[in-house]
Specification:
single chain, mainly alpha
């Protein structure tokens, strides 16, 4: 990797699994088989952690939205009953 920016972009590609096979082949040719451990760790730990984190954020946002909708429905029902 020539600079920090390219290394960071390559790591992001690995974590999102976007065409990571090409990056793996290039690294394998230039550095050898010892870097396979890095790829395995980043793919299994990094990308799955990232996916779980995104799913958790989406689930929390859905739960908050659902709770707000239920609260609004309860308030409207109370207003309707007071009429």
């Amino acid at each position: 990797y020539d600079s920090f920016n390219w290394a960071f972009l390559a790591l992001f590609r690995l974590m999102t699994q976007d065409y990571w096979e090409n990056l793996f082949q290039l690294t394998l040719r230039s550095a050898g088989k010892t870097y396979m451990v890095f790829f395995v760790l980043v793919i299994f730990l990094g990308s799955f952690y990232l996916i779980n984190l995104i799913l958790a954020v989406v689930a929390m946002a859905y739960a908050e939205q659902n709770e707000a909708t239920m609260q609004e429905a309860i308030e409207k029902e109370k207003e309707f009953q007071e009429m």
